[in-house]
Amino acid sequence: MTTNLAESINSVLKKSTNRGREAVAMLASGQVCTKVLNKVIEDARRKKNAHNILEFDRRDSQFLVQETINPRKVQPVVDFTVKLDERWRDCGKFQKLHKPCSHVVTSCKHAHREYRNYIYLMYMLESVSNIYKGFFGELHNETYWSPCHESMICPDPKKKRSTKGHPIFSRIHTKMDIQEPSQPKRYFVCCIPGYSKKNCPHCVDLSQQR
């Protein structure tokens, strides 16, 4: 258990280190947004050509967008209301995900606005790189540790991975492995509880015939 926990933590730390380096490399190449947002923006810009603006109010930045071609091909074609100043869309995705969809991109294009202004900071590479700028503090020697008064957790020696040979695996037991105490074991030849190969009458008869 302790080994698995250490390996899990090590895997998480490796991924976090790689993500920080990846964000710095993308910033150096001139990119601004993360890969996830770039994919969403690319999909939205491809779909915006299939949307039309039916009504718009420049004072309140409210738009009524209609889908001429349904990209989902499951739901019927409907109209969506977009409020840019309030960062609101009637489907709720714009408020929850903080990512401009195809309807928001269409509204921004009609109002001559930059859709990047409606992107949340957590999708910016600069914000991502700032998260991984912090370093872990050094681990002092055990003699400098403060005394611990909590209960000590020790690993099970039976589950400990052996240094030689193949690792020991424990099979997960299911309901099929549980035997009810009211049902005693039955010998497979006579199917009578309490008998075995030595005292089974069928086995005795066969041995006498031989």
Question: What keyword list fits this structure?
Answer:
210 residues, alpha+beta, four-stranded antiparallel β-sheet, 6 helices, SWIM-type domain-containing protein
3D architecture notes:
This protein has a domain at 35-123. The radius of gyration is 33 Å and the shape is elongated. The longest helix is centred in the N-terminal third of the chain and has 27 residues, at 2-28. The protein is of the alpha+beta class. It contains 6 helices and 4 strands, in the order ααββββαααα. Helix content is 33%, strand content 10%. It starts with a helix and ends with a helix. The protein has a 4-stranded antiparallel beta sheet.
Question: What's the topology here?
Answer:
Elements: H1 2-28, H2 35-47, E1 51-57, E2 62-67, E3 79-83, E4 88-89, H3 93-97, H4 102-110, H5 125-131, H6 201-209
Antiparallel strand pairs: 1-2, 2-3, 3-4
Helix pairs in contact: 1-5, 2-4
Protein name: SWIM-type domain-containing protein
Organism: Glycine max (Soybean)
Largest sheet: 4 strands, antiparallel
**Total helical segments:** 6
Question: Radius of gyration over alpha carbons?
Answer: 33 Å
Beta-strand fraction estimate: 5-15%
The secondary-structure class comes to alpha+beta
Beginning-to-end CA distance, first to last residue: 55 Å
Query: Got a strand count?
Result: 4
Describe the global form: elongated
Taking pLDDT < 50 over at least 5 consecutive residues as the criterion, the unreliable ranges are none
Mean of all residue-level pLDDT scores:
76
Topology order in helix (H) and strand (E) letters: HHEEEEHHHH
Order of strands side by side in the largest beta sheet? 1-2-3-4
Q: Level of helix content?
A: 25-40%
Organism: Glycine max
Protein name: SWIM-type domain-containing protein
